[in-house]
Amino acid sequence: MPRTPQFNQSPPPGHVWADEASRLAGRSIEQLYKDRQKQKRTGTSNGPWSVSVGRKAAWREADIKKWLAGQAPGPDAEQQHNSRPAEVAA
Q1: What is the pTM of this model?
Q2: CA–CA dist 90, 88 (Å, integer)
Q3: What average pLDDT values come out for the chain (90 residues) when binned by 10 residues?
């Protein structure tokens, strides 16, 4: 399991380090870094977009909010129940 990064300085204005990005996005730190690697390799990401600040990774708060807004809501249990066809009476 990867170590939790330790940050001795505060992030630039409007940015957060991995621990806060994890809390805001609801994803593990490990998953954020996996998303970052995919972002570097392919130019796409399954999570919020990250940026480099020196040798460290940071996430813009606006990018996290934008990513969260674009996430499809989970299936609504009542809607799924109501979409079932009527049962045939015996």
Answers
A1: 0.70
A2: 6
A3: 65 92 92 93 91 91 91 67 72
Closest C-alpha among 43, 52, 49, 53 to residue 21: 49
Q: Give the tokens for residue 82.
A: 């109501």
Residue 19 to residues 5, 9, 47, 73: CA-CA distances in angstroms? 8, 13, 14, 24
Let me know: does 68 contact 25? Beta carbons within 8 Å.
yes
The answer to whether the CB of 81 falls within 8 A of the CB of 42 is: no
Taking the C-alpha atoms of residue 57 and residue 36, their distance in angstroms, rounded to an integer, is 9
Encoded tokens for 26: 């609801």
